[in-house]
């Protein structure tokens, strides 16, 4: 469904004076508002092609209706998000869930919606129809060279698809591991996986990156062959300069200090990007910032501090992607909330007085240090994020406009009630 510019204008006009009042209240007390707004406008988050329908769990899936039935409709839906918030200017494909049949026309369609292609994702955690070798006991770790070779070739094929779309990175998440003690030789599994990743790495174009995504458990429940940041860093360091780690917020054991992990991976120059989501227990893939927004803020605080220390460009030097699955919310509303939460955490992190924080740390003034952080976190930066959207041509209140335009109802009329989108 297309949303005409004038509809956004109309909706914004009705909210402008209230917005400007809130904004001026804020800009009065903040030094660098213009710089923050500029950075927010430049900060684009990639939307996963596999999270545009109702996901579900092994216990059930509840259709939402009007789900995209093919890649073209998925690009249209991400295009709609971009029209509304001007901060979702990229789509991340998962192959074979979303094979771009004619790459040229798909690329043109995406460009029409103001979208580029971020990382492409391979899939060696499911067996496809007619597949010769099964991944039941793993893919790149498999004891059988023929299975590893099949998985390597799939990843190389995914790189080719990505090149045709203008993508410049491959995300490899491996479900590989074991469910019972004794099932796996951990050392051999690591070495087979590394050897296989080296063959994939050798197929990367010069300007490409490979992101090694780690995960503590699921679908294997005893060991995972890329199970934590240390293992991912080991692979990325042994592979070479084009290899990085990818941090999916839901892939940690309970109470892991993710902001510390981020700080150290950044220090090592081996942090490639993120799969943003939130979770209370496992890999729940919930709306970003819906469970633990303070952790998200602390992660962005480490990102801003660490990237500035390295002179990195916030908008372009890391992969900013969402990885979510929707069971009870409208996927598009969920994604609008997630992008907003990321922009809010980033804006709050940009508010932190880094010099004063350094000073407090130098004096071991823990109370002062916390006050400086929480002063930023407790600042309502929503008017800044809304102003960035407004200046970029987006909606002051994307979800309110999404609802007032009855987008879901229109999508159901257009696509039907009983629809299933490929993905999670
Ligand atoms: C694994 C994961 C990975 C994707 C999949 C959709 O849990 O986070 O990033 O391949 O979700
Ligand atoms: Mn992920």
What would you say this structure looks like, in words?
- There is one protein chain.
- The chain is α/β, with parallel strands linked by helices and 424 residues long.
- The chain contains 15 helices and eleven strands.
- The structure holds 6-deoxy-beta-L-fructofuranose and manganese (II) ion (MN).
- Manganese (II) ion binds next to loops.
Short précis:
With 424 residues, the chain is α/β, with parallel strands linked by helices. The chain is 48% helix and 9% strand. It contains 15 helices and eleven strands.
Secondary-structure map:
Blueprint: H1 5-27, H2 33-42, E1 46-48, H3 71-85, E2 90-92, H4 103-112, E3 116-117, E4 120-121, H5 145-165, E5 169-173, E6 177-178, H6 186-202, E7 209-213, E8 223-224, H7 229-239, E9 243-248, H8 258-267, E10 271-276, H9 293-309, E11 319-322, H10 331-351, H11 354-362, H12 366-377, H13 382-391, H14 398-404, H15 407-415
Parallel strand pairs: 1-2, 2-3, 4-5, 5-7, 7-9, 9-10, 10-11
Antiparallel strand pairs: 6-8
Helix pairs in contact: 1-13, 2-13, 3-10, 5-6, 8-9, 9-10, 11-12
Manganese (II) ion is lined by residues 173, 213, 248, 275, 323.
């Amino acid at each position: 469904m297309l949303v005409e510019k004038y509809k956004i204008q109309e909706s914004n006009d009705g909210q402008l004076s209230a917005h400007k009042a809130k904004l001026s209240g804020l800009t009065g007390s903040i030094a660098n508002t213009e710089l923050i707004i500029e950075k927010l406008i430049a900060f684009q988050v990639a939307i996963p092609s596999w999270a545009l329908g109702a996901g579900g769990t092994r216990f059930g899936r509840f259709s939402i209706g009007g789900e995209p039935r093919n890649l073209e409709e998925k690009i249209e839906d991400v295009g709609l998000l971009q029209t509304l918030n001007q901060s979702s200017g990229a789509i991340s494909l998962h192959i074979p869930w979303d094979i771009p049949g004619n790459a040229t026309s798909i690329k043109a369609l995406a460009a029409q919606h103001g979208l580029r292609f971020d990382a492409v994702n391979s899939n060696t955690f499911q067996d496809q129809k007619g597949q010769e070798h099964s991944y039941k006991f793993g893919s790149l770790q498999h004891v059988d060279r023929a299975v590893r070779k099949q998985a390597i070739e799939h990843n190389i094929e995914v790189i080719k698809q990505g090149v045709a779309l203008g993508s410049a990175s491959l995300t490899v998440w491996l479900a590989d591991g074991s469910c019972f003690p004794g099932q796996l030789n951990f050392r051999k599994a690591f070495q087979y996986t590394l050897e296989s990743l080296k063959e994939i790495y050798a197929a990367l174009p010069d300007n490409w990156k490979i992101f090694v995504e780690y995960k503590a458990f699921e679908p294997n429940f005893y060991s995972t062959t890329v199970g934590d940041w240390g293992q991912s860093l080991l692979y990325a360091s042994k592979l070479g300069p084009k290899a990085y780690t990818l941090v999916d917020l839901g892939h940690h054991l309970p109470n892991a200090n993710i902001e510390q992990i981020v700080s150290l991976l950044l220090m090592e120059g081996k942090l490639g990007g993120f799969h943003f989501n939130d979770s209370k227990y496992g890999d729940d893939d919930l709306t970003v910032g819906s469970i633990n927004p303070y952790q998200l803020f602390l992660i962005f605080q480490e990102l801003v501090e660490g990237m500035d220390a390295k002179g990195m460009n916030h908008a372009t030097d890391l992969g900013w992607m969402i990885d979510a699955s929707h069971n009870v919310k409208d996927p598009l509303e969920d994604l609008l909330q997630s992008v907003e939460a990321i922009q809010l955490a980033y804006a709050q992190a940009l508010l932190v007085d880094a010099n004063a924080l350094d000073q407090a740390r130098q004096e071991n003034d823990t109370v002062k240090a916390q006050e400086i952080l929480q002063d930023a976190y407790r600042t309502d930066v929503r008017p800044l994020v809304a102003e960035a959207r407004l200046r970029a041509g987006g909606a002051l209140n994307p979800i309110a406009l999404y609802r007032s335009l009855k987008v879901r109802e229109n999508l159901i009329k257009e696509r039907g009630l009983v629809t299933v989108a490929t993905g999670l």
